[in-house]
Amino acid sequence: MWGRTLCAEDDSGKFSCATADCGSGKVECDGGNAEPPATLAEFTLNGDQGLDFYDVSLVDGYNLPMLVVARGGHGGDCSATGCLVDLNGACPRELRVVASATNGSRGASVACKSACEAFGDPMYCCSQAYSTPDTCQPSVYSQFFKHACPRSYSYAYDDKTSTFTCASADYIIIFCPSPFTSQKVLALRREAAQLPLVNKTMMYIGRKYASGTSSPGRVQEQIIAHGASIVVSLLLLLLFL
């Protein structure tokens, strides 16, 4: 599962998005996959020993914050996972996807590529001579993602700290959660994961931090989005009380 951003219809009625577009030309993806870079929530349900396996992956890059919370499950660790940080403004220049004039955010960083997509080097893609856990090690680019979002998948062999298990759970998936209110919700849970969910020294909220300037319309957009995430987090808080 993934979220698309900066979506619109053109004069012919074709629907497309600046990030994570699925190429269908309409709102429904009809089985199409996200075009990288995209933050992905990945699930294998009722797998080995009846467990669900789930993760939030940045292996194919990043386009928005995402939180996955297991509710009412048992077995495994049932920990929350995700990336609560807006990384677009902090993305290394060589990995940035910059908005075009057509989507209203010209010049802003709207997504962050993986090093594999940006450079195509087998060393970053964990392919060819680098296709095993021993030969494919974390790069400075995957460490950028891991440092900001310690529980997220940062490269192909990052499963030891990034794959979580639970059984018979409901899963709440939140797009663009507020880091601050999400931390309050998660403080009510007993987390089995050893790594923190978010690196509190890296919190970039809103595109205004990427460019240093904001138009009045963009500020209003940020306020609406931030307010919506607070409402969702408060609803979650009621669910866990």
UniProtKB/TrEMBL annotation:
Stored Pfam families: Thaumatin
Name of the protein this chain belongs to: Thaumatin-like protein 1b
Protein species of origin: Vitis rotundifolia (Muscadine grape)
